[in-house]
Fold this sequence. Notes:
This protein is an alpha/beta fold.
Amino acid sequence: MILKSDVLPEAMIFDLDGTLFETESVLLEAYHKAFDRLRQEGFYEGETPPQRLILSSLGMLLEQIWEVVLPAADSLTRQHANDWLLHYQLELLNSGKGRMYPGVLPTLRRLKDMGIRLFVASNGLEEYVKAVIRSQGMSRLFEGLYSAGEFQSATKADLVGRLLGDFGITSAWMIGDRKSDVEAGAANGLVVVGCQYSGFSGTGELAGAQYRISAFSELESLLP
């Protein structure tokens, strides 16, 4: 039995990768293309690092991701890896690839119809975050798309705090699949909904979330 909230939130703030967007639907192909390009340009030798490294790093800030994937690489190599990964992700998104999790679009439309303000807060790059939302035809649903890449936020908690202040929001839910989402919600006094369907979360990573959902559409069932 899922317990309902007693209060309808003024706003909902969503993580992107692993919460709204099935990241691997473009990430893995772009990942392999990026390393092919790095080898061609002489920045990298050997086999492409295992996919599990990039997948387990989703939700981290970019510099943290490359510390996991390329721990022995210098800053120039990591920057080239980052640039080519973004390039190929955008290329794939613009070609029509990529998909949201089941139920995301109709659920968001109903939430907006209820008068709930919708936002995205992601640790990703600005171009990527906006390209995902635009490619899925969802731009009109969101009042703001906040990314660590655009605002150079040190933590997701800082990013969410800035969003709340910019829009004058006093009551909101934070919805995400990683520890950084739980921490961002807790630091800003928000209700946290942990998403368990992506498979990216580690054991205990969603501890502290007031609610947990196994499918995006379950979000509506938490509302009064």
